[in-house]
Write a structure and sequence with these properties.
Two copies of one chain form a homodimer. Chain A is α+β, with helices and mostly antiparallel strands. The first copy, chain A, folds into two domains: 2-96, Alpha-Beta Plaits; 108-244, Pseudouridine synthase I, catalytic domain, C-terminal subdomain (Alpha-Beta Plaits, 2-Layer Sandwich). Helix content of chain A is 23%, strand content 30%. Chain A is built from five helices and ten strands. Chain A has helices at 27-39, 72-82, 138-146, 196-208, 214-223, and strands at 2-10, 46-47, 56-66, 88-96, 108-116, 130-131, 150-153, 168-179, 182-189, 238-244. In chain A, strands 1, 2, 3, 4, 5, 6, 7, 8, 9 and 10 form a ten-stranded mixed sheet that branches. In chain A, α1 packs across α2 (72-82). At the A-B interface, β4 of A face β4 of B.
Chain lengths: 245, 245
Amino acid sequence: MRRFKLTIEYDGAPFVGWQRQENGLGVQQVLEEAVTEFCGETVLIEGAGRTDAGVHALAQVAHVDIEKETDANIVRDALNYYLRKVPVTILKSEEVSTEFHARFSATERAYLYRILDRRTPPSLNKGRVWWVPVALDAGAMNEAAQTLIGNHDFTTFRAVQCQADSPVKTLDVLTVERQGDEILIRARARSFLHRMVRNFAGTLKLVGEGKWTAGQVAEALAAADRTRGGPTAPPDGLYLTEVVY
Amino acid sequence: MRRFKLTIEYDGAPFVGWQRQENGLGVQQVLEEAVTEFCGETVLIEGAGRTDAGVHALAQVAHVDIEKETDANIVRDALNYYLRKVPVTILKSEEVSTEFHARFSATERAYLYRILDRRTPPSLNKGRVWWVPVALDAGAMNEAAQTLIGNHDFTTFRAVQCQADSPVKTLDVLTVERQGDEILIRARARSFLHRMVRNFAGTLKLVGEGKWTAGQVAEALAAADRTRGGPTAPPDGLYLTEVVY
């Protein structure tokens, strides 16, 4: 038996999310089916981050155990062949020790949230960005973001259905910068609560519009109450960009 | 009657091209229908460049004459409303003199051609790039591109069905650079022949693979014979990026 670490890019739009679910196609499911087509084995693929419906990945990481005699490059090319009809790509495949676990061995995850900040709606980037027609102040958003850095109870930014044991997380990086007509929000932490980055984005947008101050964001965080946070930003703009081990 | 200059972004994938055609939906047609929905008038919309099926635009320019009392911002927002189900966006609308003609007043057009140069296929950028799994030498491609600059008979890079009066054009800029795993080809000229940029891309790719030298590209140009040029690159990677007046 060999364990392979897979680095995966996908367009989240046609999927119900990373996880296999009853109500539609999960990325996990299409990957597991591709492995079965390749080697005839029924496998469980574990991912580093359970992205929601519509959320994209530039570099999700997962691992899979395969009995068949094969090597990492063959796994990559064969899976890409069986995935050719869905927007999922195996960027990299590496043989790893069976001690490696895509989810539990990860030491940091990084996300990017893209806001298209212009008067007119997206056409080429439809489904890839959150369209906000009001002009946002990226500087003010970045300043407010800094109040969230560090070890906190993040209940204010946690989805009610979140299954994590504790709402306490350490946020390492949260930056906001403008690049042309896009506002880019970047976040890094060992792990995130469910919808945490989308809840950050929805809250920081209120700051960008001038409706909230950085102080109000800090107060909302301190309240540890989801009803005190801003709305959840849509999944379209969110990308899992890196998993560090 | 007022004439409006429209700057338009679109995803070319679902269209048969810019021009209204019998065999499917053209971008021109969806724009003309949006104008009719807005003001009840039947109009002809003239574009600066007739992009082919699958070719995208970051800033196509067109003009339209409207009898109804209105202004440029209303035209922009109303057309975007009627275009909301198709990947076409009016980025800008400006009232111009009736001497302005989107096609004939243009003094320069700019195109970008994107090659995804990596072993594994695109998922997020499917339909937006030409996937070339072989590693390309962008420096060699750029050097070969310089042999095409200037005033030449470009028959070698002209589609056989091209309707231009003359194959002689002046190519102002043709550059090739690598940006991460993408190769970006940028071209500027007063006007281009049909499929000229895609024929440049298809030929320069042969140079990038080491199959052709810059000297062979110069010889192919001098031969003024389409059969001496490289293959036509797919439309997916091509973007009309700017029209100058």
